[in-house]
Batch of 3 targets.
Target 1
Amino acid sequence: MKYAILSLFLVFPAAGAAQSVTPAFTHGSMQSTSTTEISIERTIATEVYGGDYKKWSGENVTPSSTIESSTNTWSLTTDGSPFTLEVVERAAGIVETIDITESIDQTTTTTSLSVFSQ
């Protein structure tokens, strides 16, 4: 007998009914605020390299040998006349060092508003 009742439920299942849902509100809004803070500290280090450089210039002067010679001496071409002499010598290596330090602070705030109704 139990099987007979069970088979009736399987052959003729009961219809399911869904209930409708009615929201309790008719309109509304939502606000969202987001804040982002960024802090960056950085240093830009630059080293400028140069090559070996030797040069001389002048008036009324004569070198005893080439500019590369470490025993070079200078003499006047015409005694008693005015003279000028400029000697530039730079060794290879770092010519200049540049350090730039920066501090970057940024704050961003975003606010959004959503309005909805039924």
Target 2
Amino acid sequence: MSSLIDLVNLSLSMIGESPINNFDDGTTKSDICRTNTPLVLQAMLSEHRWNFNRERVLLAADATAPAFGFAYQYTLPGDCLRVWGIGDDGEGGPITSLKWKREGGKILTNEAGPLPVHYNAYNELPSTWSGTFMMGVANMLAGVFAGAIASDAKLALSKQQEALTIWLPNARGNNGQEGSQEIIQSDDLLVVRDG
């Protein structure tokens, strides 16, 4: 699947609808597709740490500090959907103990720059997604289109449930297997037991 139009047409075929040529062909169907596709995609790209839309960036501090509460603020990239963490733990991950907050398009923190930021980016290239995520998006869009285009609430619910109960859980599982396993160690239980 190379484009969003291909994905949208797959979704339309799932509910028995004919394809569209592009998002601006002047039909009600293409208007519905153009309006809803980016909204659904943004929600689904934000809901998990997908490997295919994960980005890392070093940000320079803004010239102006926040009014109070933090020493520095950093402007996030325009494609940032969700920030997962800041800092570099030496193994490519964020430092969980750093204090920070996202406010609008900024990260506020007491950490001086350049600031390593881990985030999910908006990625509308289906050719870079996993197959299971692609099918999750296609089914979720089919659900939206079934309601908005075909006026079939039962089919809409069925397609959205398929996305949420079959495709997205499989996509999350596959995503978690793309890299070395994180080993979480803690002596907290030993301290409590011996304490």
Target 3
Amino acid sequence: MSLEQKLKKIDHTFMDKSETEKLIPFKSLEERMLKYKREVDHKAKEDLESEIRRLKEFEMSKMRIEEA
């Protein structure tokens, strides 16, 4: 391999590495956004289930009062 070819290979390797490192912050941001979305979805599901339980209990107590 000639010196010129070796230098081109080194340049190419450096450029690839540089491009990859530039994308790392975006990957990190995307991972954080996905984690946040999962957390928000989980919280919304819990809140919905809690509200459904509350409404069922309210309806049951309302029916008991009507029966009495």
